[in-house]
Amino acid sequence: MLSPAYLVLVAVLLLLRLPAPAVAGRPLIDRKPAPSEAAATARWLAGENTWGVLSTISSDLSGAPFGNVVSYSDGVPGKSHGIPYFYLTTLDPTARDALEDDRTSLTLSEFPLGTCGKIDPENPTCAKLTLTGKLKLVDRQSSEADLAKAALFSKHSEMEGWPKNHHFEIFKLEIENIFLIDWFGGPKPISPSEYLEYGRNLQGSRMIS
Amino acid sequence: MLSPAYLVLVAVLLLLRLPAPAVAGRPLIDRKPAPSEAAATARWLAGENTWGVLSTISSDLSGAPFGNVVSYSDGVPGKSHGIPYFYLTTLDPTARDALEDDRTSLTLSEFPLGTCGKIDPENPTCAKLTLTGKLKLVDRQSSEADLAKAALFSKHSEMEGWPKNHHFEIFKLEIENIFLIDWFGGPKPISPSEYLEYGRNLQGSRMIS
């Protein structure tokens, strides 16, 4: 017969192996993935950050590349989908630029998440992600606009109260190229479909639905 | 005759009005300037941040605007000059792009400094700065390269040990246009000379020499 102490030990071991209970709003990828998991790392950076730099071809500055600080969201907390949505006004040059030339990139760093520790922001092990593609206006009457607003307003609550007469509109980045540095040895090759489909078939705490 | 209590009170009042003693390495502008002080705010953002997003015209991506996370320094601690210096390798696309087309912008946010509190990163009162100009290679034999290395290595100590065979070089941004949002009402007009000369003639804790 098994001793009570042994049964307690087995119970503790089983408990330690159990996934944490699902909680609404819990991050989909709850810690930095390993460097070998490129698509997971890119999705983690997109899901954990709430702001980045959106670069456009500047119409005010004769075609110079113009980076601007923007807030974004790729889903409500706990439901990250990888597509960045923005809430922009043409009072700001970024939206005006995109309506003339929609080539755009969104750049994110691991550094502000606090997980790089004392590693320099330019060190390749402090991950950095650039999503390049087209910045597109989302039809405000579409169901996609409703999803995008829910994604944006849940992570940026003050947006909902921004002045109506500034005519904010929803934009999204249609991703065509992914540049990820998360380790030594140069950028990791990730296709937009690998990035967007990451997690669809995973079970447990990493499931993205 | 004046009472001892009165003399003590006067001494305390005088002490309270004295400027804080100068300390090596103390920030030149030790708190966020008022929204009316545009050049000071821009210099504060450049001096307090240590990393940002450098955007170039991508040669790999058919001329798309490409933002990349980089570290920079505009002076040794306590001696901010406003010109951002970078330590880049052509193993990375940003330096390669700049050597083909030197049009570049550096984008900085107040948000990672922690002084925006709960204000959204896109809110105009959470300051954002874009310096647009030309990214130029600095002659490694010049005295400017020595100053730039001192500026970079004092704020990014690990840079000094980065691999020699990666051929890092010093680059600088020659600023031609300044875009600052630090309050409601649109970007503040600041000329590059106003920005670069800010503080040269100020006395006391704000003196920049």
TrEMBL record, chains A, B:
One annotated Gene Ontology cellular component of this protein: cytoplasm
InterPro entries for this protein: CREG_beta-barrel, Split_barrel_FMN-bd
Signal peptide per UniProt: 1-24
Entry keyword set: Signal
Occurrences of domain CREG-like beta-barrel (ranges): 34-196
Pfam families assigned to the protein according to its UniProt record, in alphabetical order: CREG_beta-barrel (PF13883)
Name of the protein in its database record: CREG-like beta-barrel domain-containing protein
Organism in which the protein naturally occurs: Brachypodium distachyon (Purple false brome)
